[in-house]
Design a protein that fits this description.
It contains 4 helices and 5 strands, in the order H-E-E-E-E-H-E-H-H. The chain is α/β, with parallel strands linked by helices. The protein has a single domain, classed as Alkaline Phosphatase, subunit A, CATH 3.40.720.10. The strands form 2 sheets. Strands 2-1-5 form a 3-stranded parallel β-sheet, sandwiched between helices. Strands 3-4 form a two-stranded antiparallel sheet.
């Protein structure tokens, strides 16, 4: 995928196809971001729910499905299963998604049937506002100083893909970067806690010795370093 506004071609042979064809039970929880194809309308239901008759756009993930295309309000989260109505999340999205993943592990006998569960968190993606992260984790960093990076420039890098307005760079990003980082670190600490919960659940299920766990990310954040966000 080269940009979010292009729908993935279902004729490609993908990871989910390989797993399903190899008799793995698949599960997918969280952000998908491979279905919407209208810029500026990511959060509309038609761009988030993959209907049953378009199941090939789930790209081989034929098992448990609790996904959505776009949302960054982590206390106003939702997902779709096999019906078009949104299923609203009660609580902080990463916490609930981890609960769902743990239930996936607990509800079935994992001793014989191989499985592949994808847990696609939205955090620590912006918006980095205090009301978008649990207070207990924000409190871990509320007294922490976050100075501007040593490579800070009063002019944004013009080759950045966005945020290149010099006036906005100084009036908005410069004064807010410390708070943005504070929330980002709080979100990341929450993910650390949730991954720990998931590892504990794998251990408790007795499958730790023959389970491979892969942690990856789609990008990091610059927070002003080298004139970039």
């Amino acid at each position: 995928m080269v940009i979010n506004e292009i729908r993935m071609n279902p004729r490609h042979r993908c990871f989910g196809h390989v797993l399903t064809d190899a008799a793995y039970e698949t599960g997918y929880i969280g952000k998908w971001h491979l279905w919407a194809n209208q810029a500026g309308h990511h959060d509309e239901a038609k761009n988030s729910y993959i209907p049953q008759e378009k199941r090939e756009h789930r790209l081989g993930f034929d098992g448990y499905w609790a996904a959505y295309n776009f949302n960054r309000q982590y206390y106003k989260a939702f997902y779709f299963e096999n019906k078009p109505g949104r299923i609203w999340v009660d609580g902080y999205e990463p916490d609930v998604q981890t609960d769902m993943a743990i239930s996936f592990l607990e509800e079935k006998d994992r001793s014989n049937k191989p499985f592949a569960l994808f847990l696609s968190y939205g955090t620590p993606h912006d918006p980095w506002s205090k009301d978008n992260v649990p207070g207990s984790f924000y409190g871990m960093f509320d007294q922490t100083a976050f100075p501007l990076p040593q490579t800070w420039s009063e002019k944004p890098d013009p080759n950045m893909d966005r945020f290149t307005d010099p006036e906005q760079w100084l009036s908005y990003y410069k004064p807010n970067l410390p708070e943005f980082q504070r929330v980002y670190y709080a979100m990341t600490a929450n993910l650390d806690w949730n991954i720990g919960r998931l590892l504990d659940a794998v251990e408790k299920a007795g499958i730790a010795r023959n389970t491979i766990i892969v942690f990856s990310s789609d990008h990091g954040e610059m927070f002003g370093a080298h004139g970039r966000i």
